[in-house]
């Protein structure tokens, strides 16, 4: 094997093994909560009013139990769970109140894209929602960075 063919094999192997350079760029950055002692990610993947209420209640209770500056809360909605972040959802005021107190609500763009393909129209979501490309990948990113996953 010549040096040039060996070099080509090594470069090919590295390009297969290396992650895409923008793989992390598709995630929402970590919250800017330097004094947070607790970091929680809440998963919402159901379109069930009781489940939505429970997720919001858990986030609210955590904010009350800990000072809002001492807890980082991120709610990741994907699949049917994105309905919580639609403008007409009756829980909209509660979502916006939690955002005002420092919680973050992520919405999965893969779900949005799928609904657009199926219905021919892009679904709307509230401005308080932070778009992420892949909801489950955002959960994985957060857990890899010290967040505890809770699925109420």
Automatic annotation (TrEMBL):
InterPro entries hit by this protein: DsrEFH-like
Gene3D superfamilies per the UniProt record, alphabetical: DsrEFH-like (3.40.1260.10)
Name of the protein in its database record: Sulfur reduction protein DsrE
Organism: Bradyrhizobium jicamae
Top-level taxonomy: Bacteria, Pseudomonadati, Pseudomonadota, Alphaproteobacteria, Hyphomicrobiales
